[in-house]
Design a protein that fits this description.
Layout lengths: L5 H13 L13 E4 L4 H13 L7 E2 L4 H8 L10 E4 L5 H9 L5 E16 L10 H8 L2 E3 L9 E3 L5 H4 L10 E3 L5 H15 L3 H6 L4 H9 L7 E3 L4 H10 L4 E5 H5 L5 E3 L9 H5 L6 E9 L9 H8 L2 H4 L15 H13 L8
Parallel strand pairs: 1-2, 1-3, 7-8, 7-9
Antiparallel strand pairs: 3-11, 4-9, 4-10, 4-11, 5-6
Helix pairs in contact: 2-13, 5-7, 7-9
Length: 355
């Protein structure tokens, strides 16, 4: 058996303890970033600015969806695994536990701002589509209260085919909704904020939440599978393109894609609120959420530029109200929260386990 000399032994033990042993064996020269399609345009813009500075190579950013990105991120330590995972929701406990099991022990959570989830149509659509969260639930959920007796306590397979069947004031048009797949953080947030929010407006369903939360969440958040809701992949740009080809369809995606395509899209009011920078920033728009990215602390100092990239992303010139990410649709955190987030990111303090 080959013996390690004392300095080598100390180095090996130290690196194994910090989770960087495998990362140190063959480092990349550029940061690898995966995750949310919603955070992608922000991350890509920061990567471009970061690369232009010339000190480090431009990071490689891939849009894999929040769930898919975190799974890759949590697969292990080393240059074959991503350094950063973008997320349009907080990391789940199950994901954190998977990270820990794979040796990804120290994870830094960075909150970067807010985003709204919008329902939009092509400007070529024949009629506007103002909706409530309850109407969204009734249009998209797999099971809904029996229309013949809505308060009777019976669920049926979703029978609604056109919007005016849900509400006579809505257009007499086929319900066709293009949206993200289950691996997407946008899908998670839409289900929680829009579908569950609308579901709770039905008293007998809301009453069951106290006694059977699993049933409640399954009822409220399971999307129909009869072709009315069409999974359009992880790329929100693809949804925008498909709306132009099918003007009567509605699409679900992050506000940033609406901001970048205002010449082509009309956003639906949700509960009477138009998605706008101001309405999302002050919490008036009902379907909004925080955005994050997660950093593998064990790769800091091994993969060049991670600390500097995080500093750039959380700087005022990027994430501030007048920063270049605002032009991409990022809703800035309030001043005090933004300062705190930047300080925590700089300190690289690992997150605590989610509950």
């Amino acid at each position: 058996m080959k013996k390690l000399n004392m300095p080598s032994l100390i180095l090996a033990v130290s690196m194994a303890a910090t989770g960087t042993l495998h990362a140190a064996t063959g480092a990349r020269d550029a940061i690898a970033i995966v995750g949310s399609s919603t955070v992608y345009p922000f991350s890509a813009a920061v990567a471009e600015q970061f690369g232009k500075a010339g000190k480090f190579k431009t990071p490689k950013v891939e849009s894999t969806g929040t769930g898919g990105g975190i799974k890759l991120f949590c697969s292990g330590m080393g240059p074959q695994y991503p350094d950063i995972a973008n997320a349009s929701r907080k990391m789940k406990k199950s994901e954190y536990d998977a990270c820990q099991k794979a040796g990804v022990k120290e994870i830094v959570e960075v909150k970067i701002g807010f985003d709204g989830i919008v329902v939009a149509q092509s400007k070529k659509a024949k009629a506007e589509l103002p909706l409530t969260r309850k109407e969204l639930y009734l249009a998209v959920a797999k099971q809904v209260p029996d229309p013949k007796n809505p308060e009777g306590g019976l669920l049926v397979e979703n029978p609604y085919k056109s919007w005016n069947e849900i509400n006579p004031s809505l257009p007499n048009a086929k319900i066709e909704v293009l949206g993200p797949p289950p691996s997407s953080g946008t899908r998670d947030a839409f289900a929680e904020l829009a579908l569950e929010g609308g579901c709770q407006e039905i008293p007998w369903i809301k009453a069951k939440k106290e006694t059977d939360e699993a049933w409640f969440k399954s009822t409220c958040m399971t999307v129909r599978e009869d072709g009315t809701y069409i999974e359009a992949g992880e790329n929100d740009n693809l949804i925008v393109q498909k709306l132009e080809a099918n003007p009567d369809a509605a699409g679900i995606f992050g506000y940033s894609y609406l901001a970048m395509n205002e010449d082509r899209l009309n956003a639906s009011k949700i509960d009477g609120r138009v998605p706008s920078y101001e309405a999302i920033a002050d919490g008036q728009y009902p379907v909004s959420r925080p955005l994050f990215f997660y950093v593998k602390k064990g790769h800091v100092g091994v993969i060049p530029g991670i600390e500097q990239y995080v500093t750039e992303f959380t700087s005022e010139k990027a994430a501030g109200p007048e920063g270049y990410l605002a032009d991409k649709g990022l809703i800035a955190l309030p001043d005090a929260d933004r300062k705190k987030a930047a300080e925590q990111a700089k300190a690289m303090k690992p997150m605590v386990a989610p509950k």
